[in-house]
């Protein structure tokens, strides 16, 4: 039995038939008697933790444990049976779906869209640039791109002319989504600074005047600037706002998903139903993401 799962069972008792882990009768009355394990997207860590905290206040007997690591990590964990819910900022790949079905005797992964996110392009506040196009981003980040200096983008007066690209590791759903929407069939250009999480991208960019990075708009701080993005060079840029993400006018908008193996049951179903309810969607709104429902 996997060590991680073993440790959970030793503390909380036997696995329940409805997808949660339940404690033994000897546990204290105020201890959680059910645990729901959530893993995956770093983009969704903030919102997943907020959901878990709010839900525990409503149902103290249920403990929701949240881990990040990236969308790929969450999907792999779901397939291996280490978690009940996989947070992802990308769709499951066909080979991942097939592996899950084979591993779990025909049980198919089910997608639950729980919100939307605008993937923002961040620069240091001192950068005078306000707008960038998808074409220019491809030239900056793509392996075939020729833009390596800010002066090539018409920016002058920078402490260093060299563009410092802040990217994500290749297991990240943010990495995969940016590549799909911005780079198309290109690979990423080598030599970027690859951050472990969405928050790290913003932190690195805030400390580096010549940097440009991409991360969820929910991670914006006053120490960075979010650029407007246009589909083509010369066109007006669209700001990464909640309204523009909801009406899909912002070019880098994506759904945020939670995957389960088969239709959820028991405490897992109740938790997902709460996330999709007005109370759960209010958390989405408060953290700067776009609700999946009006």
Characteristics:
294 residues, D-Maltodextrin-Binding Protein, domain 2, two-stranded parallel ribbon, 23% strand, disordered N terminus
Characterise this structure:
The structure is a single chain. The protein has 294 residues and is of the alpha/beta class. The chain has two domains: 3-117 and 256-291, D-Maltodextrin-Binding Protein, domain 2 (3-Layer(aba) Sandwich), CATH 3.40.190; 118-253, Periplasmic binding protein-like II (D-Maltodextrin-Binding Protein, domain 2). It is built from ten helices and 13 strands. The chain has helices at residues 3-12, 45-58, 71-80, 94-103, 134-141, 173-183, 198-206, 242-246, 266-276, 278-286; strands at 21-22, 34-40, 62-69, 85-88, 109-123, 131-133, 164-168, 193-195, 211-216, 225-226, 228-230, 253-261, 290-291. Strands 1, 2, 3, 4, 5, 7, 8, 9, 10, 12 and 13 form an eleven-stranded mixed sheet that branches. Strands 6-11 form a two-stranded parallel ribbon. α2 (45-58) links the parallel β2 and β3 (62-69). Mean pLDDT is 88; it is low at 1-30.
């Amino acid at each position: 039995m996997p060590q991680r799962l073993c440790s959970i069972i030793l503390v909380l008792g036997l696995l329940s038939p409805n997808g949660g882990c339940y404690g033994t009768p000897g546990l204290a009355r105020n201890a959680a008697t059910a645990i729901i394990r959530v893993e995956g997207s770093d983009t969704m860590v903030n919102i997943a933790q907020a959901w878990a905290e709010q839900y525990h206040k409503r149902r103290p007997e249920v403990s929701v444990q949240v881990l990040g690591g990236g969308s790929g990590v969450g999907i792999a964990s779901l397939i291996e049976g280490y978690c009940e819910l996989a947070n992802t900022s990308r769709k499951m790949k066909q080979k991942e779906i097939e592996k899950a079905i084979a591993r779990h005797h025909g049980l198919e992964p089910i997608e639950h869209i729980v919100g939307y996110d605008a993937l923002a392009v961040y620069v240091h506040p001192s950068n005078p640039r306000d707008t960038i196009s998808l074409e220019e981003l491809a030239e900056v980040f793509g392996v075939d791109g020729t833009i390596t200096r800010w002066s090539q983008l018409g920016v002058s007066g920078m402490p260093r002319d060299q563009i410092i690209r802040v990217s994500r590791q290749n297991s990240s759903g943010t990495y995969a989504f940016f590549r799909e929407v911005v780079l198309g069939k290109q690979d990423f250009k080598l030599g970027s600074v690859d951050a472990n999480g969405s928050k790290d991208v913003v932190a690195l960019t805030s400390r580096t005047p010549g940097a440009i990075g991409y991360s969820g708009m929910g991670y914006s701080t006053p120490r960075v600037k979010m650029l407007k993005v246009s589909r083509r060079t010369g066109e007006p840029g669209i700001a990464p706002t909640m309204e523009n993400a909801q009406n899909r006018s912002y070019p880098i908008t994506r759904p945020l998903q939670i995957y389960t193996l088969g239709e959820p049951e028991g405490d897992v179903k109740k938790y997902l139903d709460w996330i999709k309810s007005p109370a759960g969607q209010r958390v989405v709104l408060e953290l700067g993401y776009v609700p999946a429902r009006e």
